[in-house]
Structures are given as C-alpha cells and as structure tokens.
Design brief:
By secondary structure, the protein is α/β, with parallel strands linked by helices. It has 6 domains: about 90 residues, Response regulator (Rossmann fold); about 90 residues, Rossmann fold (3-Layer(aba) Sandwich), CATH 3.40.50; about 60 residues, no CATH class; about 140 residues, P-loop containing nucleotide triphosphate hydrolases (Rossmann fold), CATH 3.40.50; about 80 residues, Helicase, Ruva Protein, domain 3, CATH 1.10.8.60; about 45 residues, Orthogonal Bundle (Arc Repressor Mutant, subunit A), CATH 1.10.10.60. The chain is about 45% helix and about 20% strand. The protein contains 21 helices and 21 strands. The longest helix is centred in the middle third of the chain and has 35 residues. It binds adenosine-5'-triphosphate. Adenosine-5'-triphosphate binds next to α12, α15 and α17. This is Sigma-54-dependent Fis family transcriptional regulator. Keywords: ATP-binding, Nucleotide-binding, Transcription, Transcription regulation.
C-alpha cells in the first residue's frame, strides 16, 4: 500500500462536476481515481459497489457524501464548499436584480453568512436540517416573492421543479484538490494503522491461544480461537470487577460450557485511556467424559521421571529389580507419582509392547475382563478411597479373573488404605513405597523446570523460570498433595504470570491462599480427641443451621448420641 496508488472513487452528485474532476485529475499523482455521477441513493449504490471491489476511499459532496459515509466502512471524504465557491456563486447572483435566497445545510449557510455580511450582499439565508424540509420551504419562499434560489443539488432541482431560478453552488478546483489531498492522507494513515493492527493481531495469535477481549459492558471487542472451534457459550461476568477500584486486575474463573466441557478462564482487566477492557484467556480442562472413562489406556511410554533424590532413586531401583513379578502394590500419598512409576514399570516389563490401562477401584464392578483390549498388558487399579462402600467393596473375584488373563496388576494405595488389607500381603506381591515430595525436596527444582516447560508447550504460557526466592518458598512448603499439588500450583502460576520469570510474590500469594483454605480445618484439628470431636460436631451443627436431626445424619450418629456428646 505504501508505494501503491490509492484507489479512490469520486461520486460526483451532479454531472458538471465530473468534467471538472477529470480536469483536476491530470495534476493528481497519488490517487488511482474512478469518477462516477450519482446523487444521494444512486451515489450510495456506487460507493457500496466500490467498497466491495476493494476501493480504499470514496470522495463525494454534501448530502450524498453524508449518506455514503453512513453506508460504507471505508473513509469518505466530503468536498467542502469553500469560500471561493461561495464567492463565485454570490458574485454571479448579485448581477440578477431579483429577490434571492440561499438554502442549505448549516455547512453551506454558515460559510455563506460570513461573505454576505462582509460584502453586504442583499441575499437571505435559510438553513435546513433535513432534505425533506426543502420543498415546503421553497414553496413558502416562492409565495414570499423569492425568484432566485442558490443551494446544493436537491435545492437546485427542487427550485427548478417549482419554477424558481435555481443556481447550483458548484465546487471549484481548490475544493477538489483539497479533497484529493485529504483522501490520500486519510487512506495512507488508515493503511498504516491497519498494518499495525494486523501486526499486533499476528503477535497475539502467536503469543496466546484462545482469547476474547470484552468491553466493560460485556460486548466482544476482539476474539480468536485456536483450540476451540468457536466461542464457548459461557457467561463471563465482567462488570463487578470493573467497578471495584483497586480490585484484582487478574482472576481465574472455572466454568462449564453447555457441552459439559470444563473451561478455565483467566480474566485480566486492562485500562486504556478512559475505557477498561477484559482480556479473557480460555483453557480447556480435561473433559469429564474422559475422566469418567472406566478404562484409561496409555499407548505411549511414560514421560520423564525426575529423580535426583536418594528416596526416589531407591524407589526406582526397587522397580528395576522387580520386573519379573506381576503383582504390585504401590504405596504412597496422593499425587506422589504412583501412576507415573507404574507406567515406568510397565515400560520396563513390556519393552514397549502392549498398553497400560488404569481403572478406578469403583469401576471394577462394571468392568468385565473381556472388555479389556488384547493389547493391554498392565492394569493399574487406583482410587480405593472413592469406593462408596469402603474396603468391602473391592472386587476380588474380578481381580482374580484379571490375574488369570496373565496381566500385570498394580494397585495404588495410600499407607492407610493398604494397612488393613491382608490380601495384598499375599506371596509374590511386591510393595513399592513411593516417597512423599516432602521427603525428596532435592527433586523440587527439576520438577519445577519440567512442569514450566510442559505448560509452556501445552498451554503456550510464557513463564519458563522461577526466581531463587520463589524456589525457596516452594522448598519451605510441605506439599501434602505432593507432586500433583505442585503441578496444579505451577499451572496456576504460569497462567497468571505473563512474563518469563515467576516472581516469589506470586508464589507467596498462591501459597498464602492455600494456608487460608486449609487454615480452617487445621485449626479444628488442635486439642485432644474429645475436643476435636466436639469442635467438629459444633461446626456441622452450625453449618446445618443448628438442626440436630440434619447434623446427626451428616455425622452418621443418632440424635441421642449427638445430644449426649454435646452435653458431656
Ligand atoms: N518424579 C516425577 N517426575 C516428573 N513428573 C512427575 C513425577 N512424579 C509425579 N509427576 C507428575 O505429577 C502428576 C501426578 O503424578 P501421578 O498421577 O503419577 O500421581 P499419583 O500418585 O498416581 O496420584 P493420585 O494419588 O492422585 O492417583 C503427574 O502429572 C505426573 O506426571
């Protein structure tokens, strides 16, 4: 565009203008000009067509220019009625010894007034706001004895039709040259801005994935979708945050779209000048369906296992030495990496031949051994804590049937779950103790780096480093939820952090929130067992609006026991 000529359409509202434009264009070098004649709606139709054909701008005059500018999205330059144009027509009219008037929009009459006053010319002026007023006004003027009427195209045509002498205020060369110049300036400026916008959009597309920019009133200003096929139908509240001065400028919202897809939205408030906008970034969460699948099959090898610590190395040595066995119990806290290590064991045992499948203990009931695909070599049974009926519900017959199919069976349990289950101490069952993250803080740094890399590749987040102070905060925390908890915290951090480095203040904020989340329950756990029991009963009672029947039901004790415990 910068070195190309600007494609402009000149819509002349009257034929005589076309000739003058033709003449002027000989001295014009910046515009690739097309000239057409068409007044009002005719002009609009010509302009719309030009816009569709890729013209850069339209030049027209008066009412026609106004109508065109309402109908197209490209710049419309209005040829202004200059002092020279006015002077020309007034000088011409002055030679007629008749009662004269100028009729037109304010743009015409205001310009004329200055000259009329200055030169003391006996011409009256009548301003109209809308073309529809023209005919009635001219009829009235005719009755009042006016014979010569000056004005724009509509005025001129109406006057002629009513038998008055009409004089069209024509545009002279200077006005046309001015319009050429303005068309070139505006179009170049617009092309530059468009280029700038395209460049920014390009950066945005490269740097972020699915996003939407909302104005404070909730209307969509910009959107782009990469992993989503279309805008997820979500109700994203924008107004409350915006009206809170000093309120959080960034927050995370969890939502579910109408298809049940879980979506995470990070909202950032951006103030630009007087206006405020919400940049909403969308992240897909694993679908509930996927999570609910009875059998989750992994066909690919286990991802990299971080192990700098002695505790983890011992665990891996144990696994490496047990590959000839086919019944295992992996014992460790939530999120310690039991599944990951089980997949590693599977890889060692099968050397890449056969799939790894995991199933929740509660889903075993509905799973018949025939449903398990042939290629599956290892079945990992987990989530024993979510068995609705407790340990009694473990489907031992099913497990025996799986054993008979020659599959490697791996159970994942916490220390507590494993302790009461004598069957898992059967001969030939290997116990692998997976250390808690608190016992292997040496692994923390590399785990952080691995997760930052993982999120930057899968979510397109930019943070790739953690400050030393941030690392220290992570090392001081005791991670009851182990590696999973670390991973979730880092995911939140990378989504909130737009820079390359995660500062300790963000980690502090996220950890502090954990403190306040767990604070209430940990406070409950202080004191003797009787005191704790009483505090729990009181809390449940309060939550149930002091309804003893409801509280007793929730605590699974009868009402008289509840009453006795409160009395003691
Ligand atoms: N040593 C490690 N190196 C790299 N990633 C790890 C490591 N340990 C755990 N992870 C990652 O942490 C997350 C939790 O691990 P995993 O699901 O194996 O834990 P789990 O003990 O089976 O959890 P749960 O008790 O909730 O079933 C996974 O994304 C896993 O890849």
């Amino acid at each position: 565009m910068v070195n190309m000529k600007i494609k402009a359409l000149f819509v002349a509202p009257y034929a005589a203008m076309e000739n003058l434009i033709e003449e002027c264009r000989k001295q014009e070098s910046e515009l690739d000009l097309t000239i057409r004649t068409g007044n009002l709606q005719e002009g609009v139709a010509l302009a719309k067509q030009a816009e569709a054909e890729g013209f850069d701008c339209i030049i027209s005059r008066g009412g026609t220019a106004k109508l065109i500018s309402e109908a197209v999205d490209i710049p419309v330059i209005d040829v202004r009625v200059s002092g020279y144009d006015m002077l020309r027509v007034l000088t011409l009219a002055n030679d007629f010894p008749r009662k004269k008037a100028i009729v037109g929009f304010p743009a015409i009459t205001a310009g004329a007034k200055a000259i009329i006053d200055l030169l003391d010319i006996p011409i009256d002026m009548f301003t109209i706001r809308d073309e529809s007023e023209t005919e009635a006004l001219l009829r009235q003027l005719k009755e009042d004895g006016y014979q010569l009427i000056m004005g724009d195209v509509v005025t001129f045509e109406t006057a002629s039709r009513l038998g008055l002498l009409g004089i069209l205020i024509q545009s002279g060369r200077e006005s046309i040259f001015d319009a050429f110049k303005e068309a070139a300036t505006v179009s170049r400026w617009l092309a530059k801005s468009r280029q700038e916008i395209e460049r920014l959009k390009g950066f945005l597309r490269a740097a972020a994935s699915d996003l939407m920019v909302l104005a404070d009133n909730g209307s969509v200003v910009y959107e782009q979708w990469k992993t989503f096929s279309a805008r997820p139908e979500l109700d994203i509240p924008v107004a409350e945050g915006a009206s809170e001065p000093g309120g959080p400028s960034r927050e995370m919202v969890h939502a579910t779209d109408p298809d049940g897809q879980s979506v995470q939205v990070v909202k950032t408030r951006i103030a630009i000048g007087e206006s405020a906008y919400w940049l909403c970034e969308f992240f897909k969460q694993p679908t509930r369906r996927e999570a609910e699948d009875k059998l989750r099959i992994h066909r690919e090898p286990a991802p990299l296992i971080i192990h700098q610590s002695e505790a983890m190395n011992t665990c891996l040595t144990m696994i490496g030495r047990s590959v000839t066995y086919d019944r295992f119990i992996f014992i460790g806290g939530k999120g310690t990496g039991k599944r990951l290590l089980a997949r590693h064991l599977h890889d060692l045992k099968t050397k890449g031949h056969g799939y790894f499948a995991s199933v929740k203990a509660a889903d075993l009931r509905e799973l018949s051994p025939e449903e398990i695909p042939e290629e599956v070599r290892t079945v990992y049974v987990h989530a024993f804590d979510r068995l609705p009926g407790g340990r009694e519900e473990i489907q031992w017959q099913k497990i025996e049937a799986l054993k008979r199919r020659g599959l490697t069976l791996i159970f994942a349990m916490t220390e507590e779950e494993a302790s009461g289950e004598h069957r898992i101490y059967e001969d030939g069952t290997i116990h692998v103790h997976v250390p808690a993250l608190a016992e292997r803080k040496e692994d923390l740094k590399e785990l952080v780096t691995t997760f930052l890399l993982h999120f930057s590749q899968t979510l397109g987040t930019s943070a790739i480093r953690m400050t030393e102070k941030g690392m220290k905060l992570l090392a001081d925390y005791d991670w009851p939820g182990n590696v999973s908890e670390l991973k979730v915290l880092l995911q939140e951090a990378v989504v909130l952090e737009k820079g390359y480095v995660i500062e300790h203040s963000l980690i502090e904020q996220l950890l502090r929130r954990k403190g306040s989340e767990s604070g209430a329950s940990s406070e409950l756990l202080k004191g003797t067992l009787d005191q704790i029991e009483r505090k729990i009963i009181e809390k449940v009672l309060e939550e149930e609006g002091f309804n003893q029947t409801k509280a007793a039901k929730r605590l699974q004790i009868n009402r008289s026991t509840l009453w006795r415990k409160l009395k003691d």
